[in-house]
Amino acid sequence: xxxxxxxxxxxxxxxxxxxxxxxxxxxxxxxxxxxxxxxxxxxxxxxxxxxxxxxxxxxxxxxxxxxxxxxxxxxxxxxxxxxxxxxxxxxxxxxxxxxxxxxxxxxxxxxxxxxxxxxxxxxxxxxxxxxxxxxxxxxxxxxxxxxxxxxxxxxxxxxxxxxxxxxxxxxxxxxxxxxxxxxxxxxxxxxxxxxxxxxxxxxxxxxxxxxxxxxxxxxxxxxxxxxxxxxxxxxxxxxxxxxxxxxxxxxxxxxxxxxxxxxx
Length: 264
Known about the structure:
The chain is mostly helical.
């Protein structure tokens, strides 16, 4: 079952399951990055996360995976390919690929878990179409974070856990690739959240009280992203059923303005 087929439904995934999915995906990326022969996934996105009947996450579609740099090299150079809304800005601008590009993409998926929104959504107002641009100003402010949380959670999430996930996501989507944490560190921090019971259900967050305590956010319009492709639709929880064959609903497309390259 595809992960992103669960967002947006009447019965969405609980906070605990979202954290479980994030940990499973982080474990997969960490394994690839820390392998003796490093592998860069290059097209990490929500629709490439597959879930079994117990919501264990597995990565799929390695068609764009690339061998990582060797020796003292910090990156590999390649034509830009991937999925709009998930690709790291430095990779788009220069074609220089490193494992930190995957970290950026993982940060975008964390934002999707928090907000229930797609990485790119043209049905939203201009300044909200790009999830990273819209969410970033709220990630470092505990008083404003509730404004971007997925309303389908109904406030059923631990505030400390949500703040911690927001902090991790903020580090992952840092504009300076060198300042992004390695996936091994991201995985460790997520597992600590689970161990600390931040993945357990909590009393409803009082949205009305929070709205009185927090100043209104000055929402400003941001330039439209030149990346136009729309990711797959969000995920929604379904009753447990017999495990179905895992599948992937489509391969990544080359980013606008770049030619398709054969992956070596």
